[in-house]
Design a protein that fits this description.
This protein is α/β, with parallel strands linked by helices and 99 residues long. The protein has one domain. Helix content is 43%, strand content 19%. The protein has four helices and three strands. It has a three-stranded parallel sheet, covered by helices on one side. Helix 2 packs parallel to helix 3. The longest helix has 14 residues. The protein starts with a helix and ends with a helix.
């Protein structure tokens, strides 16, 4: 029984893993799952999200990341977003179609 106590204690005192999430949040859901999973692990004390980086030119992607972090109560996570030109002219003109 004494060994079981120390085993459980070892799980409780484990340090959270520092995590930076690099996402291309857009029209699919895989990145939503990744950001939600990171936030859930942070709630469990298993991860410490240092930052979330949005690496495509889709304008609203970083806003989606911010909303997910807010839902989990993690508004202080640093966010970074690509702000340069992206893709071809046709791709850029499609951006306004969704916003």
């Amino acid at each position: 029984m004494n060994n079981l106590k120390w085993g459980l204690l070892g799980l409780v005192v484990a340090k959270p893993v520092p995590l930076i999430i690099d996402t291309d949040m857009g029209f699919d859901v895989d990145d939503v799952g990744s950001v939600c999973l990171g936030n859930a692990l942070m709630d469990l004390g298993e991860a410490d999200i240092l930052a979330v980086v949005h690496d495509t030119g889709y304008y609203y992607g970083i806003g989606a990341v911010s909303v997910i972090n807010h839902y989990y109560g993690h508004d202080k996570i640093a966010l970074g977003a690509y702000k340069g030109q992206f893709g071809k002219k046709n791709w850029q003109s499609n951006q306004n179609r969704y916003g």
